Amino acid sequence: MTDPGRRRTAVTVACAMSLSMILAACATPATPAASATAARASTPLPPSVSASAASPAPASTGSSASPGSGAPSGAVEDPSLLAALPATVDGIDVTLEHQAFLDAVADPAFAQHVRRAAFGVAVSGGDLVSGVVAEPEPGTYSEAFFRDWRDTFNQGACGQAGGVVGNAETQIGDRTVYIATCAGDLRTYHTWLPSRGVIVSAFALGGKRFGEALMEGLRP
Q1: CA 23, CA 105: separation in Å to the nearest integer?
Q2: Which of 156, 154, 128 lies closest to 57, judged by CA?
Q3: Given 5, 65, 132, 140, which residue has the most CB atoms within 10 angstroms?
Q4: DSSP count for the chain of H helices, then E strands
Q5: What are phi and psi of 99, to 5 degrees?
Q6: Reduced DSSP (H G I as helix, E B as strand, rest coil) percent helix, strand, coil of the chain, to 5
Q7: Rounded to an integer, what distance in angstroms lies between the CA atom of residue 159 and that of residue 153?
């Protein structure tokens, strides 16, 4: 039986990622126009977004934590994990997204299953990608864990954007990448980097396919 806390962890991550994208994906129907507007506004994620996609989580008490510090939940933000992501996507810098980490660690289930994590984002007009590099707690990762992570992550991202309308498995570089398409043109991407011991998951939106570019540029 799937661990409910483990499933909630992936939903929490999905709904904590990207200031702009998750406002579009989890709070309102995702359309390119709405998402691009949210991206330009750079509005912080309200705590109610995570609560609507999973069981209620307490508001973050770690807003004063600095990158690289332990969050109140016990999970640690480690910006060095972003070394697994490309430095740029289509010429746009991938930058640390500290607030997304704070939103994620507000849920105790995150600390139970994730040891370290860092969130990065690249935005250019209506094209954007937001990715998380997450190191599971020792002994946590398995094929079943990764499958549950993908499924619940996709549900969290697509649940308020018309749902998942397609799933695919492909090779990008020498890695297997799992791609889900939501209604409203939102896509999610997942891969496992065994040499680093991390999961990389991302949302992307826009015609330039930042998601594919992010996955292609991973540095295992």
Answers
A1: 18
A2: 156
A3: 132
A4: 8, 10
A5: -60, -35
A6: 35, 30, 35
A7: 10
159 vs 77: CA distance, rounded Å = 27
Q: Which residues contact 91 (CB under 8 A, 6 or more apart)?
A: none
Question: Which residues is 121 bridged to in the sheet?
Answer: 95, 130
Q: How far apart are the first and last CA of the chain?
A: 32
Where along the chain do its domains lie?
A: 4-56+76-216
Burial class of residue 99 (count of CB atoms within 10 Å of its CB; 0-12, 13-18, 19+): middle
Q: Chain-wide mean pLDDT for the chain? A: 74
Contact 157, 27 (CB under 8 A): no
Between these two residues, 2 and 154, which has the higher pLDDT value?
A: 154
Please say if the pLDDT value at position 37 is more than 80: no
d(CA 129, CA 60): 24
Query: Coil, helix or strand for 111?
Result: helix
- Structure tokens, 73: 């939940």
What pLDDT does residue 114 have?
94
Do 115 and 75 contact (CB within 8 A), yes or no? yes
pLDDT at 10: 52
The amino acid that residue 218 corresponds to is L
Tokens coding 180? 């889900």
- How many whole angstroms separate alpha carbon 55 and alpha carbon 57? 6
